[in-house]
Amino acid sequence: MAAGEKVFAKCKTCHEIGPNAKAKIGPPLTGVVGRPVASVPGFAYSETLKKKAGEIGNWDKEKLQQWLTDPAKYAGGTVKMMFKLAKPEERQAVVDYLETQK
Q1: Cα(58)–Cα(39) distance, integer angstroms
Q2: What is the set of domains in the chain, with CATH numbers?
Q3: Cα pseudo-dihedral 73, 35, 17, 5, rounded to 10
Q4: N or C end of the chain: which has fewer CB within 10 A?
């Protein structure tokens, strides 16, 4: 988990995690694994992601890996999330870390 927490430091500019996490540029990521896509109340998701949410369903580890590889490609033009994690081992580490954050 230490590796994932270290990689998550890259995400902290836009996302919070933890029991009191709030939306920033991106939604809070506490409990994201298993949560429906585009479902944090009050967060202004891109129209593209909101339309795609029903098709994607819930975030699981595989979907998060795909999202972090290229959000715009995964959700067909999402413009709010431009950050990518290029290294597969970083994506795996951060997704494993997010899974522990209930």
Answers
A1: 9
A2: 2-100 (1.10.760.10)
A3: -70
A4: C
d(CA 56, CA 75) in angstroms, rounded, equals 9
**In this structure, what token pair is assigned to residue 97?**
């870390």
Tokens of 95: 């997704």
DSSP state, residue 11: T
- The per-residue pLDDT for range 15-47, each reduced to its tens digit, is 999 999 999 999 999 999 999 999 999 999 999
pTM of the full structure: 0.93
Angle at 17 between CA 62 and CA 6, to 5 degrees: 70
